[in-house]
Amino acid sequence: MRLVQIDAPELSQAECYAAEARAELRALLPAGTPVRVVEDGRLDHTDRFGRRLAYVFRGNRLVNRELVERGAASVWFFRGRRGGHAEELLAAALAARTAGAGLWGACPGTRLDPSAPVASGAG
Q1: Alpha-carbon span 24 to 37, nearest angstrom
Q2: Which of 46, 50, 87, 115 is the most buried (most CB within 10 A)?
Q3: What is the pLDDT of residues 80-117, one digit of tens each?
Q4: What's 2-106's CATH class?
Q5: Angle in degrees, CA 85, 90, 93, rounded to 5
Q6: Phi, psi at residue 74, to the nearest 5°?
Q7: Global pTM?
Q8: From CA 8, how far away is CA 74, in angstroms rounded?
Q9: H-helix or E-strand containing 2?
């Protein structure tokens, strides 16, 4: 599964803040944490690799947004398509960048571009 409308630095590409982003996700969702998975009717439900695309909720908390708020991910509106939580995700990304949270403080030169995957550079 892939968290829809967001993108985090890639461990496989040794991007800046990738290990920290993974740690943030694990802190939010320790193994065995009950979650609610919600697809967005405005967006594709699977990606080209066959992974399910969805929002993940832990209780009432939208994990996708929390990762963006912490600077562990940025927004990515694939093909420009905005889902039901797009505006709140974008607002969270702008606030995180302004505050220098997470990758925004740790990875100089990272751009906030909702039309592209996050590119945090070499870690």
Answers
A1: 19
A2: 46
A3: 999 999 999 999 999 999 999 999 999 999 999 999 99
A4: mainly beta
A5: 125
A6: -125, 175
A7: 0.95
A8: 6
A9: strand 2-3
